[in-house]
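Notebook p. 47: complex prediction with protoporphyrin IX containing FE.
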Amino acid sequence: MLTAEEIACVRSSFDMVFANATDMTTTFYQRLFELAPECRSMFPDNMDVLKRDFIATLAVLVGSLDRMTGLLSSTDILGRNHARYGVRPEHYPLVGEALLWSLAKGLGPQWTAEVEQAWRKVYEIISQRMIAISAGPRLP
Ligand code: HEM
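Predicted complex, structure tokens below:
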């Protein structure tokens, strides 16, 4: 699904933003709430813990890109959790745009067309799987 070049591209760009993880996650949620203010109430008032959880989970996902089984089992858990939070399929493109925006801001000139394309593909794979699993039968 992903080429070795795309995986390398996503990993090296992620490493760069991970060095400034707080900035990246702050920009990400700011942009999300600008694009979708109606989503703000789904999240806790204090976002500090979630920011750390989000970047840590992104690191796990990026680390699993060359092991589809591992990647998909992580996305399945996330997808089920997100269905419980009330997240719907139409929210995913908004989160995708906020994520790309925060990566672009974090990377500056390193945000090339190639990097953007690779991240779009990765987000598509992750979000499609989360959406598909959340449409399945509810688990206890
Ligand atoms: C690649 C996509 C996404 C990733 C990696 C991600 C990651 C996370 C993580 C790690 C958590 C902490 C709890 C848990 O692990 O389940 C979380 C919680 C949450 N996410 Fe996401 N998420 C994604 C997409 C979305 C989307 C599309 C929405 C829709 C607005 C969303 C809304 C939420 C909400 C409302 C919570 C719960 C906050 C709380 O009550 O603590 N997420 N997300």
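Notes: The mean pLDDT is 95. The radius of gyration is 15 Å.
Next step: compare against the earlier run before touching the bench.
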